[in-house]
Amino acid sequence: MLKTFSSAISPLLDRRSQGHSLPAGLYTRQDVFEADLDVFFHKHWIYVGLECDVPEPGDAHVIDLGSASIILLRDDDGRIRVFHNVCRHRGTRLLDSGSSIISKLVCPYHQWTYELSGELAYAPHMGTSFDKTCRSLKPVHFKSIGGLIYVCLSEAPPEDIDALERTMKERLAPYDLANSKVAFQTEIIETGNWKLTIENNRECYHCSSNHPELCVSFIDLDFGFDPETLNPEDREEAEKHQALYDERTRQWEAQGHPSAAVEQLVDCATNFRTQRLVIAGAGESQTPDATAASAKLMGTMTRKDLGDTHLWGHNCWHHFMGDHAVTTLIIPLGPDRTLVRTKWLVHKDAVEGRDYDLDKLTSVWIATNGQDAQLVARSHAGILDPAYEPGPYSPFTEGQLDNFATWYIDRMRANGY
């Protein structure tokens, strides 16, 4: 099957022109979707959740990734574990999707029972010669990076995850995500290919005309502009903004807050970018008035003016602010359907109605996600049109899309397509 897919997909990869969007079939075809799941969601590191998704021993959370399913749980000793959601008897799913509280993992089919550490504890009617030690649950490679859980389903995970781990360990430490809690969660099924979801997230060319709520706190100039097309007043504003940005970054770095951009985007397996972004307006948080949504700050944070530490990967994007964090993951469900799951985090002791107002906390990204879902659907519909042909990326505002498309082609090639 891989060889068949490879021979069919390879000509599509060949047709991609540098600086242009992908050929239509790479967004729309079923065989490409299945190859994408295999390459990018089974053989690469992906973000799947948070330590605070399973705060107590016995808490379990199931994530489905195409035909694969994994269980994120906290064992009796308080350690994070990740297992394949497959009974070692005849392959039955142990847990349903979503969250649950368990004392042991019990297969609903024949009652094979596993400890939270994965060892098989009970297998009825298997005879006295049956060796339980050979039938523990299959573990999944995972890393907790500052409280963010990344997994790789491959037996040989890419080693360059270490760069992400080194970079984010220090940057995420003050937010103490392991001791946060999920204040709210939403799920959207976007009617579009997962690559369009990622492309939409990696540019702000569209922000000023589509995201009025986000642009109160988000500065679209951060993501590029064409200086030759700006009038003198706008050019002066852009230059002042860049000077402010440079000075603010120097100040933050001098005060011990890592802020400069770190990128690993091409010629790599693990794709990520992080930078501390300036927040517009009141400068505190991504809320309707850019002031903090929670009076109780995250982790050990003592300041509300340290901007937005953003992080993205090929299936996620995150924003970490003094008062709260927003984490988003995507999972392809089909060539034209993508799950977008967003969580809003606050300090674990923050109380709704006393420390934070839920609407203020969530309204900006609820609106933004809805607007983006409409844009992705319109993009996918246009790519299905016979008139579609790959268009040129703006060198000023869409350079990251070119990087992503280049990385995508390279990783498909590296995996035999």
Automatic annotation (TrEMBL):
Residues 46-151 form the Rieske domain. InterPro entries: Rieske_2Fe-2S (IPR017941), Rieske_2Fe-2S_sf (IPR036922), Ring_hydroxy_dOase_asu_C_dom (IPR015879), Rng_hydr_dOase-A (IPR001663). Keywords: 2Fe-2S, Iron, Iron-sulfur, Metal-binding, Oxidoreductase. Signal peptide: none annotated. The keyword Ligase does not apply. Pfam families: Rieske, Ring_hydroxyl_A. Its cofactor is Fe cation. It comes from the Bacteria. Gene3D superfamilies: Naphthalene 1,2-dioxygenase Alpha Subunit, Chain A, domain 1, Rieske [2Fe-2S] iron-sulphur domain. This is Rieske 2Fe-2S family protein. It comes from Labrys wisconsinensis.
